[in-house]
Amino acid sequence: xxxxxxxxxxxxxxxxxxxxxxxxxxxxxxxxxxxxxxxxxxxxxxxxxxxxxxxxxxxxxxxxxxxxxxxxxxxxxxxxxxxxxxxxxxxxxxxxxxxxxxxxxxxxxxxxxxxxxxxxxxxxxxxxxxxxxxxxxxxxxxxxxxxxxxxxxxxxxxxxxxxxxxxxxxxxxxxxxxxxxxxxxxxxxxxxxxxxxxxxxxxxxxxxxxxxxxxxx
Amino acid sequence: xxxxxxxxxxxxxxxxxxxxxxxxxxxxxxxxxxxxxxxxxxxxxxxxxxxxxxxxxxxxxxxxxxxxxxxxxxxxxxxxxxxxxxxxxxxxxxxxxxxxxxxxxxxxxxxxxxxxxxxxxxxxxxxxxxxxxxxxxxxxxxxxxxxxxxxxxxxxxxxxxxxxxxxxxxxxxxxxxxxxxxxxxxxxxxxxxxxxxxxxxxxxxxxxxxxxxxxxx
Lengths: 217, 217
What we know:
homodimer, two-stranded antiparallel ribbon, 9 helices, globular
C-alpha cells in the first residue's frame, strides 16, 4: 500500500520503518524537511531506511493510508497542512490529547464526552478515521511479542468498517494477535482515557515497555 | 480483622462473603436494614452467610477496615452517615464516578484533575483512604484466577503506606498476585479513568468477566 506517516518522532519513525520493512511504499512527512534531515537522530534513521522518502506535510499525495503520528497538541494543525487532502484516505490516528503544561503526569485536553479522534474526523469529514495503537509505547508497536514474550491487546475504533479492516491487516502484519474492535469512532474516548492510567503504571514500574492484555474467561 | 462493608449490592455482598470466608469479623451496612433484609436477593445471600451481621450505616462502629462498596453517585452521602466516623480507619474505596444519566456507556462526573477517591479523602481527612478493586467486575474480585485462568493485575492508590499494606494483605488473601502500587491517592485518577475503556471493552466482548494484565518486558 502507499502509506504516508505524518510525524518524524519516535512513533513516526517506528511506523515508517515497520511499514517499509513489510514492502509498503512509504513516505514520512514533516513540517520542514530541511530542518528534519539535518537532525542527527533523524539522519541516522534515514540512512538505515533509504526507501522512505522525507516530504513536507503539504507534499503528501496519493496515499491510501495516512498515519497521524504527531503530538496530540499539534496534530490538527499538521493534518490541515496535508496537501492532497484526506478524502477517502484511511486515516490511522495514533494521537492522544496529552497536556503536559502542568507537568507529569499529563492531563487530557479532550475527554469523556469527546475525543481527539472525533475532532480529527469532524475536521476531515471525508477521511476514514480509525483510532488505534494510541494505547502503547512506540517501542511495542511493531513485533510486540519479541519484547513482551506474550500476546497483548490493541484496539480499533472507527465508523468505517472497511477502513478498520485495512488497519486490522496492518496491525496483523506488525504482529498484533489480539485486536479488539471496540466499535464506533466514539469508543476512542475509551482508549484515549486509558492514558492517565498508562502514565501512572509507567511511573510505578519505571518503564514504558508494558502493554495491557485483556484476559477474558 | 473487623471489617465493615458499606453497601449490599453485588460488590458489597461479594466482599463481605469473601472476607467472612477468610475468618474476618464482618458486618455489612445499608441505609435501611429492614428494607434490605426483605429483598429476596439479599435474603438468599444472608441465609448462606449467617456470620455477617446486617446493620445501618449509622450503626457501623469499631471497624478497622471500612470498604466503600456503594455506587459512586451516592457514596459520599452514605459515608457521611457512618456512625462512629472514619478516623484512623483503613477506608478501602472501590467507587467509580459513573454517570449513567445520558445512557450507556456512562461518563465520569469527576475526572482527570480530581478523583472520587480524593473527594472521599477530603470529606474524611482522618480516614486512611486506599483506592483499589475499582477496575474489575465484582465477579472477579475474589479468586480471580478461578475464572480467568491466569494472573491479572489490580492497583493500589493511597497516601498512607501502612493502610496500603493492610489492603495489599486483603487482596493477597483474595488471590490477587499482581498488585501494582501506583503511589499517592491522586493516582486514583488513573484507575477511575480506566472505566471508560472498561465499559467499551465490555460492550465489544459482551461480557464483564475480563480483567487487564499489565504485561512488562
